[in-house]
């Protein structure tokens, strides 16, 4: 039996890491873990743990986020390394969240560590083909090193339920961490455009732009929005089940165009119709009007129009929900992701034999 060691400073409960861990176990591999907090002492403990286990695994999986531990991984093992990059530090902190300017020392460091960490791996995992092209172009990496593993979700948790909302208002659902790619501004602007028309918005989560968005909602007198803070991961399906429509992402940052966010997969797993921005990434697997509704990015008016369209057409809502769930069942379940991961592992082993 192939032995896999999961390694890094990753959060084992984060959705991406849960899906990959369960996928590897479902594939029949012997999976062990070596993870610690991100700190000086944590990195030392990781190095010591890897040295101790160096003869007890066949392939090392460095889970997200893993850029900072890839050097340790490569220094202390000669075994094949699969690195789930998932997202780029430079892309996230500089291009999307704009915490640092592109020419700053921190931005240069992020570009360097993104490039070097991928170069040290035998195989790099990303979540879409569009994201792979971004890494290849931005960091000068070879395309053949990358494999796509779509995000999916934990389908032990996210399953269809009966709509259980406690009122008759048409409910629009969003959850996220208010980072720029989410485009929460456009959701709030859309809500303000259609207030007084029996449509209520519920926005769950907190994050970078949360306070700014609360202020915007107040300025626009968008009294048809309820803000709820963070909720436990396992409670999200209950909130999704109460929704008539779920929202994806609507920002116009470079990252928006290359990712399909957790919330889209979670919503279609629960058989709810989804509206999201029309991007190269989403078009890889989704089809407008069949399993999702596309709107132009950063366009509140288009979003408001799409919400009204779905409110007024129950059959379309049912059709989109059914199409989305069918797509999930065919391509994004743990069984499918497990199969993709199994192929990646077997290809590594076959390549090593030759």
Spatial order of strands in the largest sheet:
2-1-3-4-5-6
Contiguous helical run count: 14
Radius of gyration: 21 Å
Structural class: alpha/beta
**Sheet of most strands:** 6 strands, parallel
Spans of at least 5 consecutive residues whose pLDDT stays below 50 are none
Strand content: 5-15%
Mean pLDDT: 96
Order of helices and strands: EHEHEHEHHEHEEHEHEHEHEHEHHH
Residues in helix, %: 40-55%
Q: Give the end-to-end Cα distance, rounded to a whole number of Å.
A: 20 Å
Q: How many beta-strand segments?
A: 12
Oligomer: single chain
Outline:
The chain has 354 residues and is of the alpha/beta class. It has 14 helices and 12 strands.
Account of the protein in words:
This protein has 354 residues and is α/β, with parallel strands linked by helices. The protein is built from 14 helices and 12 strands. The chain has helices spanning 15-26, 40-52, 70-75, 89-96, 105-120, 129-139, 184-193, 210-219, 236-241, 262-269, 280-283, 300-312, 314-331, 334-353, and strands spanning 3-8, 30-35, 59-62, 81-84, 123-126, 146-148, 170-175, 199-204, 225-228, 245-247, 274-277, 293-295. A 6-stranded parallel β-sheet has the order 2-1-3-4-5-6, sandwiched between helices. It has a 6-stranded parallel β-sheet with strand order 9-8-7-10-11-12, with helices on both faces. Helix 11 (280-283) links the parallel strand 11 and strand 12.
């Amino acid at each position: 039996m192939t032995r896999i060691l999961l390694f890094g400073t990753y959060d084992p409960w984060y959705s991406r890491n849960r899906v990959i861990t369960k996928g590897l176990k479902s594939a029949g591999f012997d999976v062990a873990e070596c993870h610690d907090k991100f700190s000086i002492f944590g990195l030392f403990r990781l190095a010591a743990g890897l040295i101790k286990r160096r003869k007890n695994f066949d392939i090392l999986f460095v889970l997200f986020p893993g850029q900072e531990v890839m050097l340790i991984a490569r220094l202390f093992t000669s075994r094949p390394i699969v690195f789930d990059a998932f997202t780029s530090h430079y892309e996230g902190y500089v291009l999307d969240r704009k915490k640092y300017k592109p020419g700053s020392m921190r931005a240069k460091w992020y570009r360097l560590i993104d490039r070097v960490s991928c170069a040290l791996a035998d195989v790099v995992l990303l979540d879409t083909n569009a994201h792979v092209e971004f890494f290849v172009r931005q960091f000068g990496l070879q395309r053949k090193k990358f494999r796509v593993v779509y995000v999916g979700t934990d389908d032990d948790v996210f399953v269809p339920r009966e709509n259980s909302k406690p009122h008759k208002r048409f409910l629009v659902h969003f959850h996220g961490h208010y980072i720029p790619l989410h485009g929460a501004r456009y959701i709030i602007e859309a809500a303000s455009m259609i207030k007084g028309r029996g449509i209520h918005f519920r926005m769950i989560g907190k994050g970078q732009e949360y306070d700014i968005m609360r202020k915007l909602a107040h300025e626009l007198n968008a009294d048809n929005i309820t803000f709820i803070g963070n909720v436990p991961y396992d409670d999200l399906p209950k909130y999704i089940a109460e929704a008539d429509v779920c929202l994806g992402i609507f920002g116009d940052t470079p990252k928006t165009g290359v990712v399909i966010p957790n919330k889209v997969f979670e919503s279609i797993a629960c058989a709810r119709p989804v509206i999201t921005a029309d991007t190269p990434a989403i078009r890889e697997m989704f089809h407008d009007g069949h399993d999702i509704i596309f709107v132009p990015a950063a366009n509140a008016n288009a979003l408001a129009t799409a919400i009204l369209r779905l409110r007024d057409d129950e059959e379309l809502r049912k059709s989109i929900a059914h199409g989305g769930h069918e797509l999930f069942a065919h391509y994004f379940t743990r069984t499918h992701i497990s199969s993709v991961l199994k192929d990646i592992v077997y290809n590594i082993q076959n390549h090593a034999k030759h």
